[in-house]
Amino acid sequence: MKILFLSESTASTGGTKQLLLLGAELAARGHSLAVACRPSSILNGAAARGGMRVFNLNFRSDADIASGARLAALCRRERFDILQTFHPRAHAAALMAKYFGAPGKLVVRRGVIFPIPGNPFSRFKYASARISCLVAVNDTVRDEFLKAGVEPARTAVIPPGIDQERWRGAAEGRRALPWAPPFRIAVVGHYSHFKGHDLLIKAAPAVLKEFPGTQFVMIGRGAAELKAMADAAGLSGSVSALGPRDDVPALMAGLHIVAAPSRQEGIPNALIEAQASGVPVVGAEVGGIPAVIEHGRTGLLFPKDDAGALAAALLSLLRDPGLAARLSAAGPPNVSGKFSIKAAAERFERVYRAALEAA
Fold first, then answer.
1. Which domains are delineated in the chain?
2. Three-state SS across the chain?
3. pLDDT in tens, 299-327
4. pTM for the whole thing?
């Protein structure tokens, strides 16, 4: 199949990472992959290095008619079998392109659990019959499609996948990490209110009271904001804000816990990657996190937006080396069974074939 992926994101996000991983896996399975993205996007170089053709389109807004028209012309020239979008502006442009006569079947992937607005434009954007399939990363996202008027038969649920080989070294390295102070607890993800970094900072004093010297590590964009938050809480010596890093697998090998204190979440790649690395995980009971964590077996869950409950979950794990060992051992097989990129690619192939076979 000849497949075009589309995204307006300029930064490294869960969606762009999934685009690149899925594209590489589909290419390895014999498909022809191309990417349409903004000129300033991180995808330009990354997709090209992965052997994908790159086409530049700006995708400025949902009403960017010019990009929709240019995309339609590109599709008529290249004759893609599948157009798959990963972010909302690209979704709008691809839908416009279909109305401008672009060939190929349109597949829309949505990885966030924000409610779809109930206005007529949003309902049209999701329920249009020009979309062959809407793919949700979890059942909560699929429910939003149904609320927007999408027929159940035009939806699918495909969780994100990771390349488990990339994290195998971290899992091997962690076997030598003693479950003893000083502990290192991390949040892996770019700073935003929805990611709940502030909840971990609020939970930190209770952890430090019992385990002095514990370090709380923040990996991702927003280091300046996180440092200011830690300083305001009097925790400057206990919080390390590392900013974006390319060596996350190496960092995982030195972590005792990865936390996801999110207030909203599709499915957090960071938790899946931590499990693949054998790092015990703690997550808020919100969105798609319970799809990754089975409480007490593959991680620990705590109630949303509750810093006290987060502190209690962290402390229960820090106090119990046996529980830590069980969660660590359960992580890699959980990822293999549910979240491998090979499994995701196979599921997308089924979606593509069904779209192409439909009238």
1. 2-161+340-357 (3.40.50.2000), 165-338 (3.40.50.2000)
2. CEEEEECCCCCCCHHHHHHHHHHHHHHHCCCEEEEEECCCCCHHHHHHHCCCEEEECCCCCCCCHHHHHHHHHHHHHHCCCEEEECCHHHHHHHHHHHHCCCCCEEEEEECCCCCCCCCHHHHHHHHCCCEEEEEECCHHHHHHHHHCCCCHHHEEECCCCECCHHHHHHHHHHCCCCCCCCCEEEEECCCCHHHCHHHHHHHHHHHHHHCCCCEEEEECCCHHHHHHHHHHCCCCCCEEEEECCCCHHHHHCCCCEEEECCCCCCCCHHHHHHHHCCCCEEEECCCCHHHHCCECCCEEEECCCCHHHHHHHHHHHHCCHHHHHHHHHHHHHHHHHHCEHHHHHHHHHHHHHHHHHCC
3. 999 999 999 999 999 999 999 999 999 99
4. 0.87
